[in-house]
Design brief:
It is found in: Membrane. This protein is globular. The chain folds into 2 domains: 77 residues, no CATH class; 397 residues, Cytochrome P450 (Cytochrome p450, Orthogonal Bundle), CATH 1.10.630. Helices cover 54% and strands 10% of the residues. The protein has 494 residues and is an alpha+beta fold.
């Protein structure tokens, strides 16, 4: 019996030893595979670890962002490796460098000689290889020149204002009579209607509902692990992408057929512009290029605006003193306008100084896009560390926006922190920076400003559950999509 017990103990020790040996080997497999080929340069890599084979650090990333403390992901790196501000990791299937300081973020975003877009292949499959996130620097410049003025130029913004205003007033009045609504869901529908009008001159309810539904599925897959198996978010997102492409192909084909043999039309939307543009050699965009640009723009053009509008309304109502200050500013604007004027002007929107600060503070606090991806074109030195050629670089906006050394009490909503404050370069990055800064930033702020103008003057939000827990993927939102009621607080004065 004693001999049997001894054998069992030996077996138990052997199994445990084997388990820890396998774990030790696996935990260092990525480092061995990716770092040893760097030669002596591996000794100048930033601190960090590359995690487990294939999954790398993704489990800890997903675990943190599915918890109530998403910032624990970076906090773990800081705790383990110190406040280096730059760390090695294995993210979204690639050896990566995470940068979290303003100086490093600015360098990566603005140095086009050293860095190019580095989005994961899974994201490129969803958004499109011919979209802004996948094309070369020269192609990007050409497409940006085409799309920037029609989306963000002063003339374009003035043209869109009436449509945005009418849509906002109609939506608020409608919601006030609907009882309980998911505020975020309705806002996303509103912002989607606006971007559909700008790009496709379309208000077809059937088309909008179909597209918006597919975009919801697409976004859940962008931040997920690239597991193309039924039931997983990425698999569902790929199906949504396929459906979106089919819908857009139908729209593009119909528009081409409509234009063939007909004289040019006076009023043009973005699809017309994409169909007409030519490069210096007379080459026009093919259907794949046009569709990928549409997929990207229509997604970015409604998701961010809808979410930020919701959060700005929530934050202002949670802070009555800020709400009142913003409301009084809107009342002054209405009071000072000529009696013959109907509706807002672009000049009045630019007079909304305090509301603009409230929006900026919301953009900082929420950080809608928590990270963007670049790739090192060659070995690059940053902060004394080497970023190897071909490695991905994750610009972690969230760490910058919530750094207490840059923004005291960073998790507090305080629009007044922007009084007489101009952020230093690299410390405020809600739309990115450099040549690939979000091309629709002015349009997004215009939409948000117009909505909040009418909301502050005549409405309030009564949430069913103000303490509702939050989800952080794919974007920060209450789990109930901000369920509540929109109530009129006075007869419409505008």
């Amino acid at each position: 019996m004693e001999e049997l017990v001894g054998i069992n103990w030996v077996l138990c020790i052997a199994v445990c030893a084997g388990f820890w040996a396998v774990k030790w080997v696996l935990s260092r497999a990525n480092s061995y595979f990716y770092e040893t080929q760097l030669g002596d340069d591996r000794f100048s890599l930033p601190p960090g670890d590359l995690g487990w084979p294939f999954i790398g650090n993704m489990w800890s990333f997903l675990r943190a962002f599915k918890s109530s403390n998403p910032d624990s992901f970076i906090s773990t790196f800081v705790y383990r490796f110190g406040k280096a501000g730059i760390y090695k990791a294995f993210m979204f299937g690639n050896p990566s460098i995470i940068v979290t300081t303003p100086e490093a973020c600015k360098r990566v975003l603005t140095d086009d000689e050293a860095f190019k877009p580095g989005w994961p292949s899974s994201t490129l499959k969803l958004i499109g290889r011919k979209s802004f996130i996948g094309i070369s620097y020269e192609e990007h410049k050409r497409l940006r020149r085409l799309t920037a003025a029609p989306v963000n130029g002063p003339e374009a913004l003035s043209l869109y204002m009436t449509y945005i205003e009418d849509s906002v007033k109609f939506a608020l009045n409608k919601w006030a009579g609907m009882g309980k609504i998911e505020f975020l869901t309705e806002l996303r529908k509103l912002t989607f209607r606006i971007i559909m009008y700008i790009f496709l001159s379309s208000e077809s309810e059937n088309v909008m509902e179909a597209l918006e539904r597919e975009y919801t599925m697409l976004n859940y897959g962008v931040r997920a692990m690239a597991i193309n198996i039924p039931g997983f978010a990425y698999h569902k997102a790929l199906k949504a992408r396929k459906n979106l492409v089919a819908i857009f192909q139908t729209l593009v084909t119909a528009r081409r057929n409509q234009r063939d043999g007909n004289p040019p039309i006076a009023k043009k939307d973005m699809l017309d512009a994409l169909l007409e543009v030519e490069d210096e050699h007379g080459r026009r965009l093919n259907d794949e290029e046009i569709i990928d640009v549409l997929v990207m723009y229509l997604n970015a053009g409604h998701e961010s605006s809808g979410h930020i509008t919701m959060w700005a309304a929530i934050f202002l109502q949670e802070h009555p003193e800020f709400f009142q200050r913003a409301k009084e500013e809107q009342e002054r604007i209405v009071k000072n306008r000529p009696p013959t004027q109907k509706g807002l002007t672009l000049k009045e929107v630019r007079q909304m100084e305090y509301l603009s600060k409230a929006i900026d503070e919301t953009l900082r606090l929420v950080t809608f896009s928590l990270v963007v991806f670049r790739e090192a074109k060659d070995d690059v030195k940053i902060s004394g560390y080497t970023i190897p050629k071909g490695w991905k670089v994750l610009v972690w906006f969230r760490s910058v926006h919530l750094d207490p050394e840059i923004y005291p009490d960073p998790k507090e909503f305080n629009p007044s922190r922007w009084d007489d404050h101009t952020p230093k370069t690299g410390t405020y990055l809600p739309f990115g920076a450099g040549s690939r800064m979000c091309p629709g930033n002015d349009l997004a702020k215009l939409e948000i400003s117009i909505f909040l103008h009418y909301f502050l003057l005549n409405y309030k939000l009564e949430r069913n559950n103000p303490q509702c827990p939050l989800r952080y993927l794919p974007h920060s939102r209450p789990t109930d999509n901000c369920l509540g009621r929109i109530r009129k607080v006075s007869a419409p004065s505008v």
